[in-house]
Amino acid sequence: PCLAATTHNFNRHVQRSTVTPSSRVSLLLASFVSLAVASPAFKTFVVQETIPALEGFANLGPTPADAVIKVRMALQSRDAAELHAALLDASYPKSANYGKHLSKDKANAFLAPSTDAV
């Protein structure tokens, strides 16, 4: 029960935050995507996975050339499991690390994309 409450409170805290590590990763990815789109170096790509359209969606034809498409990608974090363990450790009253919350830089280091993902 204590673990679930801690995880729930952490998730609620992350959702309320206006600048989250994931939004920083999204901004970083958007920067890379804009650089990649602007660069004529790569003309081809490989589709790794195709997911069928959700029910209710329809193909309306090609996208207009002047359309702005917002893309959001998620990359696997470097140490998501270790971040979870560190958060639980800081939340467990009998732990020596109880109440020693992670700094923003330390949390961002855990959440940085793995080198394989980039």
From TrEMBL:
<dbReference type="GO" id="GO:0008236">
    <property type="term" value="F:serine-type peptidase activity"/>
</dbReference>
<dbReference type="InterPro" id="IPR015366">
    <property type="entry name" value="S53_propep"/>
</dbReference>
<dbReference type="Pfam" id="PF09286">
    <property type="entry name" value="Pro-kuma_activ"/>
</dbReference>
<feature type="domain" description="Peptidase S53 activation">
    <location>
        <begin position="56"/>
        <end position="118"/>
    </location>
</feature>
<protein>
    <recommendedName>
        <fullName>Peptidase S53 activation domain-containing protein</fullName>
    </recommendedName>
</protein>
